[in-house]
Amino acid sequence: MINRILNLDNIHNDSTFVWGARQVGKTTLIKEAYPDATYYDLLQAKDFERLLRNPSLLSEDLATLNNGDTVVIDEVQKIPQLLDEVHSLIFSKNIRFILSGSSPRKLKRHGANLLGGRALKEILYPLVSAEIPDFDIYKAIRHGMLPRHYLISDPWKRLGAYIGVYLNEEIREEALTRQLKNFSRFMEIAAFSNGEILVYKNIAQDCGIDYRTVKDYFEILVDTLVGYLIPSFTHTQKRRSIQAPKFYYFDVGIANYLRNRRDIQLGSIDFGHAFEHFIIQELIAYLGYNEKSEQLSYWRTTSGYEVDAIIGNGRIAIEIKATEEIQPRHLKGLKAFQEEFPDCRLITVSFDLRPRVTHGVEVYPATDFLKKLWNHEIV
Questions:
Q1: pLDDT at position 108, please?
Q2: Greatest CA span in the chain, whole angstroms?
Q3: In terms of C-beta density within 10 A (0-12 exposed, 13-18 middle, 19 or more buried), how is residue 217 classed?
Q4: In the prediction, which pLDDT does 111 show?
Q5: What is the pTM of this model?
Q6: Which one, of 253, 71, 266, 235, lies nearest residue 163 by Cα?
Q7: Which among 67, 139, 229, 237 would be 20 to 30 A from 264, CA to CA?
Q8: For residue 294, how far is the Cα from the chain centroid?
Q9: How far apart are CA 114 and CA 122, in angstroms?
Q10: Rounded to an integer, what distance in angstroms lies between the CA atom of residue 121 and that of residue 114?
């Protein structure tokens, strides 16, 4: 049994949008939270076809419900017109709606009624370490944290199927781009930019498409919650920083598949990239679930100093190294950053045997860091 961090009981009686990439566990979470709710699944032809043909049937269906009853509409983005009916029912009958979907992109694109601020918005991320009993960090780094992938011994075929479903149902079906072949090629190229500073023109050259199209494609990945753009931290004065964002897929398993990193081992370059990605993934989820106002960014100077993660306005700086013993040479970026922010908390996440402090930097084995993070002792 996996208990998710996102607790829908905490949203009281408000109607709520629950967004999240495909297969993060939205349907399971909602069915467990509201087992007695009236349920519409727009992936099912019987629900989809009748409501697409006549959205007002929703109001007729729910005419006998009582004040305050709960209704779930899964994959609500498939019929944007339903939201006008939802809006009316919230006012006329005080029905509570739980509206889930893979992203609000289609709703925004069609100018759909997003309920004028009368519905909360929650995002469900892939599994996080704090949700998994007997958490295995090596498994997480190799498999990713989508429930269907983490929980089996070899998810490689499922990872491939996931990419296919995303392309066919999210991209082709929603007509987000006319050139599915180009977008598929772009996703593979983007995986090699995963965790790297984006240079759109270089990626466009590799894909054989215009760089403006590449920017649009990255926007699609972000809007469909399949990727994140991490901005650069630019508030330092002594050293000029690079301004372009970094990109990460929403789950390290997806990046592993697209880069063909199937059996990565500690000590390899590929493992180092995947480890960094995983820790960033946990930081994004932690900040999202806890509604932290501080932004996650990275820092890299034109002279080559770098810090993988900056929290807030230089309050916390975190370097991620897949090494079994942190050495002074691993701390150069953190110490350079400290010259501009002397009160900054400096942290390194690694595979050291025990937590320690060296040269004013807190060194945590990865599992210790994750426990402290989710116990609210880091941020």
A1: 76
A2: 69
A3: buried
A4: 66
A5: 0.95
A6: 253
A7: 229
A8: 17
A9: 14
A10: 10
pLDDT per residue over 122-133, tens digit each? 999 999 999 999
Structure tokens, 308: 């993988």
d(CA 165, CA 152): 19
Task: Calculate ∠ Cα 48-14-220, nearest 5°.
Answer: 55
Is the pLDDT confidence value at 342 over 70?
Answer: yes
Q: Identify which of 192, 185, 183 has the alpha carbon closest to the alpha carbon of residue 221.
A: 183
Q: What gap in Å lies between CA 108 and CA 87, rounded to an integer? A: 16
| Count of CB atoms situated within 10 Å of the CB of 214 | 25
Extract the tokens encoding 186. Answer: 């772009």
- Alpha-carbon distance values, 104 to 27, 44, 110, 228 (Å): 16, 20, 10, 15
Closest CA to 97 of 62, 60, 65, 71: 71
Q: 269-289 and 366-374 are packed helices; what angle lies between their axes, rounded to 10 degrees?
A: 10
Q: pLDDT per residue over 263-319, tens digit each? A: 899 999 999 999 999 999 999 999 999 988 899 999 999 999 999 999 999 999 999
Tokens matching residue 221: 């990945």
Q: How many CB atoms lie within 10 A of CB 219?
A: 14
Report residue 170's pLDDT band, with 50, 70 and 90 as the boundaries: confident
